[in-house]
Structure formats: C-alpha cells, structure tokens
Automatic annotation (TrEMBL):
Gene3D superfamilies: Jelly Rolls. It comes from Lupinus luteus. Its main location: secreted. Mn(2+) binds at residues 100, 102, 107, 146. The keyword Secreted applies. Residues 1-21 form the signal peptide. This is Germin-like protein. Keywords: Apoplast, Disulfide bond, Glycoprotein, Manganese, Metal-binding, Receptor, Secreted, Signal. Coiled coil: none annotated. GO terms for cellular component: apoplast.
Length: 208
C-alpha cells in the first residue's frame, strides 16, 4: 500500500512539474527559426501582449473576390509549439476560395456570417459538398483538394483553424497557370485547348 501511495505521489509530482516547466514557448522571432521551430523567449521577458493578436481584421480582396487574414506563428508568437494556427476569410457575394490543398494540415471552417458551400474531394475522387451557415462547422481532412463558394446574398465570413503553426497552401489555378510551366505540357495534362490555356495564363499572370 505504501509503495502504491509513493508511486502515485511521484507520478503526480513529475506530471505537474513537467507541465509547469513548459506552460508556453512564446517564439523568439528575432532569434531565427530552426528545424524544430522557433526558440522560446526567456520567460521573464514574456508579456501578456504576446498572447494577444490584434490584426484579425478583414484584408484586401484578391482576384477571387475574398480577403484572407492569417494568424500563424510568424505573426502570433504565442502559437509556437502549439500545433495550431488560425485565419479568417471574408468573401464577397459570388466570390470563391478556389480549389487548393494544405498538404500538412487539417482545416476546420467555422462560419460566422452568410451562406457558404464548402467541399472537398477524397482520394478516391468522391466529392463531399455541403452548404453551411452561421452555427455550422465543416472539417476538411489533411491534404485533400477543397473549395468554398459564397452562395448567399451579401458578404460571408468564416474563421478557419489549422493543426499546424504555419500550414502550407497550393492553389490549383496558380499551380497550373500562374508560373512558367510550358503551355504545351499544361494542354496535354489538362486536355485544355491552346486558347483556353493562353487565356488562363493571362489571367493568373503565367508565362511559357
């Protein structure tokens, strides 16, 4: 009995000590990033403002008619080591978030205003599509092609959460038409005719 009590006490002590030792690791952005992430600021230099992000506001619309405001570790050092980041997007009526992927992050969409049609395509090419509104949450599994459309009246807004401090993103349209990949290759791999490829490369500022 004494051994069990001692074991339990030792376990609790080690657990609480471990937790208190790593309450947070606010990124020291000036120190530079390592393969393991940013080093921690000295605890004595951490302030409450390190845990507050004050720029979570609508941004400037892009060519797809939506704005995207990110809160990743490079902007919000308190996220360092927490394996999550956030963003908000505000989509004008008729606007779209085109097909794209996050190879290293699952995405959770939380609608705050309006009506959005969101969807993803599984690896066996099955589409999962749903129109969602305020009070709905939609999960997009890691690495799958997905999109969002504003299908309502007026502007729509949502917050997204990623299980990565800095999720990667690859937009399908920009990957095909926004670089100098040879047009002949694009035509052959997409079955688009030369005129269509030329038009799309012009829109997305590609060449080749």
């Amino acid at each position: 009995m004494m051994f069990r009590a001692f074991f339990l006490f030792a376990f609790l002590l080690s657990t609480t000590s471990h937790v208190s030792a790593i309450d947070f690791c606010v990124a020291d952005l000036k120190a530079g990033e390592t393969p393991a992430g940013y080093p921690c600021k000295a605890p004595t230099t951490v302030k409450v403002d390190d845990f507050v992000f004050s720029k979570y506001l609508p941004g400037k619309n892009n060519i797809f008619n939506f704005s995207f405001t990110r809160a990743i570790v490079d902007d919000f050092p308190a996220l360092n080591g927490l394996h999550l980041s956030m963003a908000r997007f505000d989509i004008e009526e008729g606007g779209i978030v085109p097909m794209h992927t996050h190879a290293d992050a699952t995405e959770v969409i939380v609608v705050s205003h309006g009506n959005l049609t969101a969807g993803f395509i599984s690896s066996d090419n099955t589409p999962f599509v749903k129109t969602i509104s305020e009070g709905n949450i939609f999960v997009i599994p890691k690495g799958l092609l997905h999109f969002v459309l504003n299908v309502g009246k007026g502007k729509a807004s949502a917050n997204v959460i990623f299980d990565s401090v800095r999720p990667s993103v690859q937009l399908f349209n920009l990957a095909l038409f926004g670089n100098n990949l040879d047009s002949a290759i694009v035509e052959k791999t997409t079955f688009l005719d030369p005129a269509q490829v030329k038009k799309l490369k012009g829109r997305f500022k590609g060449s080749g």
